[in-house]
UniProtKB/TrEMBL annotation:
Domain of life: Bacteria
NCBIfam families: PRK09285.1
Residue stretches in coiled coil: none
GO biological process, one term: IMP biosynthetic process
PANTHER family reported for this sequence: ADENYLOSUCCINATE LYASE (PTHR43411:SF1)
Entry protein name: Adenylosuccinate lyase
Keyword set, alphabetical order: Lyase, Purine biosynthesis
UniProt-listed SUPFAM superfamilies: L-aspartase-like (SSF48557)
Tagged with keyword Lyase: yes
Function comment: Catalyzes two reactions in de novo purine nucleotide biosynthesis. Catalyzes the breakdown of 5-aminoimidazole- (N-succinylocarboxamide) ribotide (SAICAR or 2-[5-amino-1-(5-phospho-beta-D-ribosyl)imidazole-4-carboxamido]succinate) to 5-aminoimidazole-4-carboxamide ribotide (AICAR or 5-amino-1-(5-phospho-beta-D-ribosyl)imidazole-4-carboxamide) and fumarate, and of adenylosuccinate (ADS or N(6)-(1,2-dicarboxyethyl)-AMP) to adenosine monophosphate (AMP) and fumarate.
Naturally occurring in which organism (per UniProt): Cellulomonas soli
Chain ranges of the Adenylosuccinate lyase PurB C-terminal domain: 347-467
């Protein structure tokens, strides 16, 4: 059979995205493009080169270098601020000749220096400082600083606010349902009742704890030459205090200075950060699977979206697709983050290029996490609680009161009350493998010979009221 002739989708314009993050799910991850895309990398490289040039001239590091005026500094920084589609295309055109991305950035910036007299007048010194662009730098001096700034921006300005908003949303639901009694399931079996709010509070607390770690993570940087020795620096300008110049520049960028590196910054900070983000992802995955299970059990009712289809053949269904989508994307994100963490901490001797390719996947790693966060947030907004179902389930499981009754018997025995022998075994015989009614439990309590006040307290207990201080524990979220 002859294959039909088809339109080659690779030739369609505008280009069709290969992956879902830049196609179907673009809206959920678009803010990351400003930080973790290839264009963002090149813009940040220009930023680092501009700031290095300004730093060298401002601190009289290189003898004979002019001090730039405020107007000249503003001109250079405007190159970064206006970096857009035309500049992206120009840089790509230069790179086709250089076949080297960082060298293309150097030539791009030198073009802007040469054009400065047209903007600032013929007396500007910028046209004469071209050789200070990329001075004494290896490509990794620029790249490591660029990636640190990009990842810091992506985390602090995009991912962390979204992840925090989700944790706050879970915390708000915990407070809303703090008093809602619910049968707990341990090993899938009826267990000591809790409240829905307390169980959500556990997840909110776990998420917030990881967020605190991530907010405190460091972003390291270095600028010390081809093998981290300041070799070219001290030969070119032996009188400069190059470690201090390096440290003050890295700190000027808002990063933590790494004084000891090979050609590359060691990337340990990235491994630490990605492990923390992956741990947040895994806790969120736990939340998604728990909520999915609560939906399956009928604890949560999903609010139908007008016009939406749950199943192509079963019209009654409202599928928990937000949480299923989140699970899959969290697993993809963690796989990428784990690979980044494992790969980036190793570099053969003084340099190899595995980190260069690996770091280009930072964007997808955060993108899948962002997509999951978006799905969980939207899914949580479409839930309602079936309080009547929870009440029925509790009333059908009076045997869970075997725990407090045998505990009260133990306490009475310690206080000297006779007839309290073998409390666990007696409750086990009463309850194991059986469904009890309220009357069954109260009759058993009445025949134990407990002090009257204890017996009254136990007879007043129901599965719905046997929640300990679960409701009050939710307030610990704000400690």
């Amino acid at each position: 059979m002859t294959s039909p002739v088809r339109v080659p989708l690779a030739d369609v314009f505008p280009p069709i995205a290969l992956g879902p993050l830049d196609g179907r799910y673009r809206a959920a991850v678009a803010p990351l493009v400003d930080h973790l895309s290839e264009a963002a990398l090149n813009r940040m490289r220009v930023h680092v080169e501009v700031e290095w040039l300004i730093h060298l001239t401002s601190h009289h590091v290189v003898p004979g270098a002019p001090v730039l005026s405020q107007e000249e500094r503003a001109y250079l920084r405007e190159v970064v601020a206006t970096f857009g589609p035309d500049e992206i295309a120009e840089l790509a055109e230069i790179e086709r000749t250089t076949v080297h991305d960082v060298k293309a950035v150097e030539y791009f910036l030198k073009r802007r220096l040469a054009a400065a007299p047209d903007v600032l007048g013929s007396d500007t010194v910028l046209a004469g400082v071209g050789e200070l662009v990329h001075f004494a730098c290896t490509s990794e001096d620029v790249n490591n600083l660029s990636y640190a700034l990009m990842v810091r921006g992506a985390v602090r300005e995009v991912w962390l606010p979204a992840a925090t908003a989700l944790a706050d949303q879970v915390a708000a639901l915990a407070h809303e349902h703090a008093q809602q009694p619910m049968l707990a399931l341990t090993h899938g079996q009826p267990a000591t009742p809790t409240t829905l709010g307390k169980e959500l509070a556990v997840l909110a607390y776990r998420l917030r704890r990881q967020l605190a770690r991530i907010a405190g993570d460091e972003f390291l940087g270095k600028i010390n030459g081809a093998t981290g020795t300041f070799g070219a620096h001290v030969v070119a300008v032996p009188g400069a205090d190059w470690p201090t110049v390096s440290r003050t520049f890295v700190e000027h960028l808002g990063l933590t200075w790494n004084p000891l590196t090979t050609q590359i910054e060691s990337h340990d900070w990235q491994a630490e950060l990605y492990a923390d983000v992956a741990r947040y992802n895994r806790i969120l995955h736990n939340l998604a699977t728990d909520v999915w299970t609560y939906i399956s059990r009928g604890v949560f009712i999903q609010i139908p979206v007008a016009g939406a289809t749950g199943s192509s053949t079963m019209p009654h269904k409202v599928n928990p697709i937000r949480f299923e989508n989140a699970e899959a994307n969290l697993e993809l994100s963690c796989a990428l983050l784990d690979t980044l963490s494992a790969t980036l901490v190793t570099s053969r001797l003084q340099r190899d290029l595995t980190d260069s390719t690996t770091q280009r996947n930072i964007g997808p790693a955060f993108g899948h996490s962002m997509l999951a966060i978006d799905n969980v947030r939207r899914g949580l907004q479409a839930l309602d609680v079936d309080a009547a179902m929870l009440a029925r389930e509790l009333d059908e499981n009076w045997e869970v009161l075997g725990e407090p009754v045998q505990s009260a018997m133990r306490a009475a025995a310690v206080a000297g009350v006779t007839g309290m022998e073998n409390p666990y075994e007696r409750l086990k015989e009463l309850t194991r493998g059986r469904r009890l009614t309220a009357d069954d439990m109260r009759e058993f309590i009445g025949g134990l010979g407990l002090p009257e006040d204890v017996a009254d307290r136990l007879r007043a207990l129901t599965p719905a009221t046997y929640t300990g201080i679960a409701a009050a524990l939710v307030d610990r979220l704000e400690d």
